[in-house]
Amino acid sequence: MSELFDVITLARLTSMADSKTFARGKAYFIDGAVGRLGARKGAVHAEVQGTYRYRVELGVAQDGGLDYQCNCPVGDDGVFCKHAVAVALSWLENQGEEVFHADEAEPAKPRRKRKTYSEQIQDYLATLDVPALQGWLMEAVERDRGLRDRLLLPAKSERAGGLAEMKAAVRQACTVSRFLDWREAGSYGDNLAHLAQLMHQWLKGPHARHVVELAELAIASAEHSLEQIDDSNGEVMPSILQLAEVHLRACEQTRPDAVQLAERLFRFQTEGDWDTFWDILPQYRAALGEAGLARYRGLVISAWDALPALQGERANRRAWDGRRHRLEEAMTALADLDGDIDAWVRIKAKDLSGPHRYLQIAQALCQHGRSGDALAWAERGLQAYGQDPELLTFCIQQALNREDPVKADAWAWQRFAQHPSASAFAALMVVARQTGSQPPVRQRALQHLWQQVEHEEKVTRKQRASWRVPARNEVVSIFLAEGDVDAAWDAFNGGAVTTALWQPMAEARAKTHPREAIALYHRLLPVVVEEGTRNARYESALEIVHAIQQLRLAQAEHAVFAGELADIKAAYRAKRNFMRLLGSLT
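Above: the chain's sequence. Below: its structure in token form.
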């Protein structure tokens, strides 16, 4: 938990949330809208009752910052929302920290750390006798259906007279009688996870022989119920997979009839809508034994042989065939089990409805040391579908491995010419450096891009696609990447360039021509301010003003910057958040 203390701080909250969001989050905190606050697995979890009940999770990001998730509309957009603020403040208060107003000073002495709610409750429960604990528990059961079901299932299993009663208990635990929205899905998923844990315990007792059948019933019932559950947060399917894990363990332990198991597994795999039994092999190899594997193999091959071969773009436009996809997975798993790469290739070659299918075959053959066959398949894919970039990349690498510079350069050019851009140019030059053809290839590529620039800038604005990045952008980016700032500046000023390039161009130009960079920053500032207006965040705009400040100070032009800053404040005085940030400049 020490990492949470490092990232959940009042200072961080006020820096991540604007003043309005922080104030609203604090109001939620003060009003007691935060519930079910807890911490597990290095993260804080809670619910906040706002317009709806929202779930919030706070944790430590990979970069050491604060990671946050909230399923409210604002949180879904990745914004640090008022609900996240409320949960963070509640957690701080619960840890014994003083929660202050943003503008209040902290006291000289920190407060002593208080016990968490869980610790306080645990201490209280330790003082109660068994009847009192039972009374509290029964009261909770009457209010919480999920808790009731979790206790009812083991209670029924303890006194179950046979399989029929246990089936009834499992069916009741997995069945829903109405639609469950996303706020209720988590509780249902928790109940399934509890059932999986209970079945693990049954494997150690007299009910072990029934667990395979009970697990299959539970999975089928849960999958059927899933049709009436909004599991958009992914809280139910992981619990169903836990039940599938119990099923596998039970099959390995109790060894049901292998042939019948093979038939059921084949049916689950090919007919299931949720892919719970997607990968039968190699997981069930031991449980199936030789007889079961033979029966499973026969069923899979028979169904596979009945499918037609697919080839060409017309086949690629067919509707998605989930059963075919699952059968292919089963067939390739059998080939992997046998170690037969040729069989694997034949299976994949039954569907050549897209260039990616040729690439899969080529990559697999290459991994098995058959680079010649791999390249042949990749070339077949290019012949069938034209200049696919991934196939071209594969062919380029194979040509380089074979020390064939002519083919490598030819394929590299085809890949570049498909979508000429700065990144494609960089990839082209990587190949050219390895083949020793860098100067002529560079000249040819730049000439090609300049031709595109000329063609684009001849047409009218109405004829241009608004979403397309101008070719001039790519030329400027190439020169900037190469460090040729003068060439980049000339290209930049020669025609239209998107504003995304203005700041990097200004930063590069500032090293030798600071006043030209300042002028460009001033052109960019209104654009960046307008972008910040959408969410009242102006850090990028402040960065532009700060860059102007640094350049002016380097030229000993303090008074000039003071005038510029005054003009900026006058122009944007209505944008209070921006004004607050500008106040930090001295």
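The beta strands are 34-40, 43-49, 53-60, 66-70, 310-311, 351-352.
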